């Protein structure tokens, strides 16, 4: 009988997308385990379409009432999991796994939550010595080792594989809905931050896009598509208005009924330009080219929050060492425009 694993990454969308390489490792092992994820309701649509997930349990959250908290423990206990892998440890989840009687419980050795786990892996993530997704993969490999499951090689991008037909379908849908130039590049710019990351200002994005257009000099037409989350519509409108004032045509990426539909849309584009937010990491899983703008602080460096796409499809920019860590105005837009233009041209 296959081992039953419960994997927890119950915070933001970007964090969950960076768990996909670890989930791919677990599902690539032999004998193949059954993988269930515990996620909040807002990332569940992505979990439900993840190719490395067999089942999804909704986490009611830390503010849930007593009945919901106990209900979660009862559900976990009834599932009869052989192992718990918590990629980001909290006392609430650690306690739930212990109370549910899961025999093998693996988590990073951080904070006092580690008392609920019997395998604690020292990582010191705040030092940002490797990408977040690699820390997650390390934990997954530790779990596989403890269960004597074999992994012949580590999975590689794309961590969200799609067929050529799916890519073409999504691209055609965007071209049709946005009246884009069919033979031009499709570049999505996401100016919002989701409230969890700093980003370029609207003015900086306008300058960046104008620089890219000038450097391409009509040799390669670019369709600029502006995206926004449910609470970020004003950012999209402001950027489109500023670009229009600068003589640059940009369209709103057609809105999607869910985050899963938005993710499928991204499969059809050539590049996503954004801060270190959920959309950037969705694009990374799809192995779409990314141009990410990051602060320089130690816990949020481009290395720590690196996208999990192929290295040749990954661009990253942050303030220089001489600037304040979160001073995004200090980012060299000319260099960013040059590298983005070179990618789009090639």
What does this molecule look like?
- The chain is of the alpha/beta class and 346 residues long.
- The model has no long low-confidence stretch (mean pLDDT 94).
- The chain is elongated.
- It has helices at residues 13-17, 20-28, 44-49, 66-79, 91-99, 132-146, 164-178, 202-216, 233-245, 259-266, 278-285, 333-345; strands at 4-8, 34-39, 55-58, 83-86, 104-108, 119-121, 185-190, 222-226, 250-252, 271-275, 289-293, 314-317.
- A 6-stranded parallel beta sheet has the order 3-2-1-4-5-6, sandwiched between helices.
- It has 12 helices and 12 strands.
- Strand 10, helix 11 (278-285) and strand 11 form a beta-alpha-beta unit.
- It starts with a strand and ends with a helix.
- The chain has 2 domains: 4-146, Rossmann fold (3-Layer(aba) Sandwich); 164-345, Rossmann fold.
- The longest helix has 15 residues, at 132-146.
- Helix 2 packs parallel to helix 6 and helix 8 packs across helix 9 (233-245).
- Helix content is 38%, strand content 16%.
Task: Name some characteristics of this structure.
346 residues; alpha/beta; Rossmann fold; 2 domains; six-stranded parallel sheet; 12 helices; 12 strands; 38% helix; 16% strand; elongated
